[in-house]
Design a protein that fits this description.
about 475 residues; alpha/beta; 6-stranded mixed β-sheet; globular; binds pyridoxal-5'-phosphate
């Protein structure tokens, strides 16, 4: 399988290449040159497989020659063996047509584990072949950092430097990062906001001296391998609900558009998806873009669902490329305009292509509270704020009543105990396997909010590229 950049001029790479590259050299994102397709018979034959086997079968066409089928299955078995639920992503019924797909049974209690547990193993595998080392630098508003740290802790050839905005992530989120004791994990609490921290990281990727000395990599969802791993649970859920004979809809709490783009990929591979609902909170740039063609950034309003509090949705570029006719040169122009003015209009082709599968919805804080209460009263389910936003959109969706709607439950409620307790009166408990989180010792360094300090910190500690 060959991968091309959404901006048309970076060299095509194979799966191993895109996994280690992250962003393409022309500033674009890598996507497969074409979507692999499964026939209905091939989809039906996937029914009933254990999750790790389903994962290997769905991902094999994307992996191509980079891994043998046997080796891929070994890696998915190891990655998903670390989940606390035997079904890995169990499906829970709420009422006659609403379902929850629980994606939070991994080590750090958010759906990001599904992709990052595998990505950690892929890094180790591909780096081991070349003897090279990889220095991952990232900024987190909470969930990505802990999932990435857990995924690479103790792995060969890779080290991670994770910046979090000091005092602005929840105690659970911070402790999940800072209580990991592996020598290849470096936690930095930095003064300023998440956007400031993200700004330092972006600057590092463009810093010629740093990039000459170190092989710097990314773990955010611009990495293709992450999206690929997320395609699998769309298959898992749809197969249980009757695919390929019966169509299914999904409602997805959306931030960087990674998770919902994986649904777009599943549909293009032949999975019969009736609709993908892009659920946003009041930070609604994606809702404006999909309903009105207006992709323009504003101020971020902090909400109870922090992983959806975004201005610019990095994976949206992949949709614009695919839905808009795959014209890399034109998209490069469009994105340059957006980067300069922080606003753009979607083309008619992009809007039309997107609307074949996607609709969007914006939830107010009161909608979120109401959805949490409904889930508790109707189905005895305690759900997290992100999941609640998507469940609100699912319940409001205008769809044929015969189509089941699956809401992606992206985080365990105990990651956001205060918001859940405010809405439902019930305080969710951490699962027993991490019940001692607040007794674990933390380890992290604090840095002032300036680039020179972060740069010096990393330059002193990182492993030089081989
Ligand atoms: C990251 C995250 C999201 C948003 O996912 P994207 O792939 O960025 O759209 C939603 N919910 C939770 C709990 C998350 O951690």
């Amino acid at each position: 399988m060959e991968y091309v950049s959404t901006r048309g001029s970076a060299p095509a790479l194979d799966f191993e290449g895109v996994t280690l590259a992250g962003l393409a050299s022309d500033g674009g994102l890598y996507v497969p040159r074409e979507w692999p397709r499964f026939s209905n018979d091939e989809i039906a034959a996937l029914r009933g497989l254990p999750y790790a086997e389903l994962a290997a079968r769905v991902m094999q066409p994307f992996v191509g020659d980079s891994l043998t089928p046997e080796r891929l299955l070994e890696l998915t078995t190891a990655a998903y063996g670390r989940f606390a639920h035997a079904a890995v992503t169990p499906l829970v019924q709420l009422d006659e047509r609403q379902w929850l797909l629980e994606l939070f049974h991994g080590p750090t209690l958010a759906f990001k584990d599904v992709a990052l547990q595998l990505l950690g193993l892929l890094f180790e595998e591909f780096l081991g072949r070349t003897g090279k080392s990889l220095t991952i630098v990232g900024a987190t508003s909470g969930d990505t950092g802990s999932a990435a740290i857990d995924a690479v802790a103790g792995r060969e050839g890779v080290e991670i430097f994770m910046l979090h905005p000091k005092g602005r992530v929840s105690d659970v989120q911070r402790r999940q990062m800072t209580s990991v004791r592996a020598p290849n994990v470096h936690n930095i609490a930095i003064e300023g906001s998440f956007d400031d921290a993200q700004g330092h990281v972006k600057r590092m990727f463009a810093d010629p001296e740093l990039t000459r000395r170190f092989h710097i990599g990314a773990v955010n969802s611009i990495n293709w391998a992450r999206l690929m791993a997320q395609v699998v649970y769309y298959f898992a859920a749809a197969l249980q609900l009757g695919a390929p004979e019966r169509k299914v809809a999904f409602s997805v709490p959306t931030g960087n558009f990674g998770d919902v783009f994986a649904g777009h990929v599943a549909a293009h591979m032949g999975l019969p998806i009736e609709r993908l609902i892009v659920a946003t909170n009041v930070n609604d740039i994606l809702h404006r873009a999909l309903s009105d063609g207006d992709y323009s950034t504003g101020e971020v309003t902090p909400t109870a669902a922090p992983s959806m509090d975004i201005q610019v949705s990095s994976n949206f570029e992949r949709l614009l490329f695919d839905a808009g006719g795959r014209d890399g040169a034109a998209l490069a122009d469009q994105m340059r305009g957006f980067e300069a003015s922080k606003a753009m209009r979607l083309t008619n082709a992009q809007r039309q292509g997107a609307s074949e599968l996607l609709t969007s919805a914006r939830a107010e804080p009161s909608d979120m509270t109401e959805a949490m209460r409904w889930a508790r009263e109707a189905a005895c389910q305690i759900i997290d704020p992100h999941t609640a936003i998507a469940l609100h959109a699912a319940r409001a969706a205008d769809l044929d009543s015969a189509v089941p709607i699956v809401t992606l439950a992206t985080a365990h409620p105990a990651k956001f105990p205060d918001a859940v307790e405010r809405a439902t009166g019930q305080r969710p408990q951490l699962p027993a396997r991490i019940g001692d989180l607040f007794a674990r010792e933390e380890r992290y360094d604090e840095l002032p909010g300036d680039y020179a300090a972060v740069r010096a910190y990393i330059a002193e500690r990182a492993t030089p590229a081989a």
